[in-house]
Amino acid sequence: VRQGIERFAGLLARHIAEDPSQWLWMHKRWKYTPARRVLVLSDGKAGHLKQSLAVVELLREAHPTLTHIVVEVRYRHRLARALAVCWSWWLPRRLGAAACLRWTLTDETAQALLARYADLIVSCGSSLAPVNVLWASENLAKSVVIMNPAPIPLQRFHLVIAPQHDHLQRRANVIQTSGAVSRIRDEDLREAKG
Fold first, then answer.
1. Do 83 and 102 touch, CB atoms closer than 8 A?
2. For 98-109, how does the pLDDT look when each residue is reduced to its tens digit (9 = 90+)?
3. Distance between CA atoms of 103 and 125, rounded to whole angstroms?
4. 174: exposed, middle or buried (C-beta count within 10 Å: 0-12, 13-18, 19+)?
5. Which positions ≥6 away from 53 have C-beta within 8 Å?
6. CB of 163 within 8 A of CB of 148?
7. What is the pTM of this model?
C-alpha cells in the first residue's frame, strides 16, 4: 500500500509540475497546518468584543502561536439578518453558506469576512450567531458563541459559553458561567485606580 501511494504521489507531482494549470482540488486539502487562526466577529458593541477577546486570550495561553483578526459584521437590513438566521438553522451545513453571507451582509463586511480563513470562529451575541455558524461550516472551523445564540439551535455550535441566567439546556457543548466572560489585566486595574 505504501509503495502504491508513493508511486501515485510521484506521478501526481510530476503531472502538476508539467502542467500546473490543470491542478484542481475540490476540498480544503491543505487545511491542517501548525498555525491556528481565530476569526473574531464583532457587532460593534464593546462589551461583546471584550468577551470574545477574553476567550481568545485564554486560548493563546495554551497555544502561544495563535493569531486572530476581528471583523465587524453589518447586515444589509433586518430582512437580510432573518434570512441568515433561517439559512443557518434549517439548511444543511455548508450548503450555500458563502452565497448567503454575500447576499445578507453589506458589501464591505462580506469582502472582509469571505477573504478570511479561520480554524476557530468566536462571536458574542445572538446577532452574530448565524454568521458564526455559516462561516464556520464553510471553513470546516470550530465555532464558539458567547451568550445565548437563540434562535439558532445550540447543537449548531461546537461550544456555547453562556451565563446561568440564560437558563440554557445542559448539553455537552454548553458551559455556564456565573457572569460575563472577562479578563482582568494589570492595565485595567491601573486604569481603574487612576
1. no
2. 999 999 999 999
3. 21
4. middle
5. 40, 68, 70
6. no
7. 0.78
Can you name the residues that pair with 168 across neighbouring β-strands? none
Residue 70, C-alpha cell as written in the block:
476581528
C-alpha angle 151-146-92 in degrees, rounded to nearest 5: 45
3-state secondary structure of 159: strand
In the DSSP assignment, the letter for residue 113 is H
Contact 125, 170 (CB under 8 A): no
Q: Which of 184, 187, 152, 146 is nearest to 166 (CA)?
A: 146
CB atoms within 10 A of CB 173: 15
Percent of the chain with pLDDT over 70: 88
Query: For the chain, what's the residue count?
Result: 194
What residue type is assigned to position 10 of the chain?
Answer: G
pLDDT in tens, 23-33: 766 555 555 56
Vertex 127, ends 40 and 75: CA angle to 5°? 90
First vs last C-alpha separation in the chain: 68
Matching residue, cell 494549470: 21
